[in-house]
Automatic annotation (TrEMBL):
Organism this protein belongs to: Chlorobaculum thiosulfatiphilum
Signal peptide (from-to): none
InterPro entries: Aminoglycoside_PTrfase (IPR002575), Kinase-like_dom_sf (IPR011009)
Domain of life: Bacteria
SUPFAM superfamilies linked to this entry: Protein kinase-like (PK-like)
Pfam families: APH
Protein name: Aminoglycoside phosphotransferase
Aminoglycoside phosphotransferase domain ranges (all copies): 20-257
GO molecular function per UniProt: transferase activity
Record keyword Transcription regulation present: no
Keyword tags: Transferase
Amino acid sequence: MELPESIRLLFPPEERAQLDIRTIKGDASNRQYFRVTSPRGASVVCADPAFRDAAPENYPFLIVRDLFDRHGVRVPALLGVAREHGLLRLEDCGDLMLQDEIPMLDRDRLAARYRQIIDLLVRIQSIRPDEKTPDTAISFSLAFDKEKLMFEFDFFIEHALRGYFAERLDGRAIAELRGEFLAIARLLVLPEHFVLNHRDFHSRNIMLFGDEPVVIDFQDARIGLPQYDAASLLRDSYVRLDPYLVEELKRYHFERLREAGLTTMDEAEYLRLFDLMAFQRNVKAVGTFCYQTTIIGNRAFEPSIEATLGYLRAYIDARPELAVAGHLLEPLIPGTSR
């Protein structure tokens, strides 16, 4: 059955002939998205091949959506599924992303919006496993452990250093850099500080619907340092915030974590780990953008490669733990040369 015909099965028979089905630009995954307008209004259909082979109780998107919803995190409502076709019908929360709103706001309104979103982030990071609903364990059984962090570093090595930027670093430099990456990963594995993270918490995954932030693309939620999502938001590959505002918002996140009883770090340790985590997160993002550009042939992410690499200098200059890695990465960092 063709995909449009499968999508029609999600709607009442009397509406199927009247549906207007239009493709929505998706993310860096193999999922497809459609806006479907019926006589009763619009909704969004996600086509995910992985859903066909997963029982609903084991499908991460549904598990995390329900988990977030139960804890007051605004996510799109689920309107229907057709698992045999890999389809989910969701509430249409419009087209306005946080990324789109930023140029419209003055400094005070922008700061207020980001504080609102950090409050939402802390709500996510406050979620704990629920013994009454053991299906939530999937997100809490996954962590930003050494293996996951190194998988992301290795993805960068494969697709950025050996792919997009081939021959900028020789094999010996890459081997030395991987050793530095391993040392950085070990510094970031602090389970006593781990909380639940969205895992991709940036300005394209926060919709604004009725002036309310709505979180999307949350299916990869896992535990790790609270700085992981904070770095995704404040050192965003798609928008660059004023550095003074970033410092203000980092401290706001730290204060909210302390108020919620979610961390025992002092502020200096929070800021140190923020820089180390942001370094890892940005390196990971560059690997993804290079993969999309060179392997998938999707050049939409290519402008974000240089923009994201541009963040690294600040972390390297601030943290001695990054000095050697920074020296090795100089051929890639805009504005530096060896």
